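Lay summary. Proteins are chains of building blocks that fold into shapes, and those shapes determine what they do. In this project we predict the shape from the chain. Here is one chain we studied, written as its sequence of building blocks.
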Amino acid sequence: MFPLIQRCCFHTPFKLQKLTAPRLLLYGKNKTTCSSLGLQLQRDVCPLSRSPHLNVASIYATKLQGLHTSLPFFKKKTLKESETKASGVLKRSMESLKDSPKPALYLSLGGLIPFVSIPLSMAIQGTYYPELAFAQIMYGAVTVSFLGGMRWGFALPENSPAKPDWLNLGNSTIPPLFACQALLFKDVTQGAVMLVMALGIALHYDISLLPTYPRWFKVLRVVGTLVMVFSLLATAALKAISEIEQSNSRNEWRSTK
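And here is the predicted shape, written in a compact code that computers can read:
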């Protein structure tokens, strides 16, 4: 009876059954012995006679389990890791500024004084001066033109890694064109927006298209661009606030009449 059950359940080959039959006769009819023998036969026979469908199913189940397992590089970074990385980048950037030549550093920081002083003085006095705002737009247009022409000086030397091709020399003319358009606007806000766009384009050229610039120069360019952009936007915001106050005062004056 047991060989028949073994053949049906475990799909044991006929030759293997003949080899295991004498072992059954030696152990007798004890139930405990038969059960232990059955477990032993199951361990010995199952790896040989297991159906291939079961192996495929187990492999498929393992793959499905792997799909629901999150890999380490897909896990989100913790807040501490992101803060540590940001602080490390900021620290390296500040250290690279120390490597910059003193004339380049001081002249660049000194060139930002007209951008910052105009909106700061108007905010302190609480009065918007259109002449000062237009002077800031003019100074910004000159600065943008200088940043565009700087690429010519970098690409023209013989040993320069940047070639004097259409890409380098042609892109350097785009910021001055934006600066000229900013001066043609009668509205200071439109001119400030045009200069912000020109500063962004010039920064993109210096950071992405010319990676051979030294690191201290790239950091200096980023810091200077941010200061100029926020100064221009501050002037535009002060202009909008003054216009709102003037309209409110006119409405009050009309209501009193």
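What the prediction tells us: Residues 2-62 form one domain.
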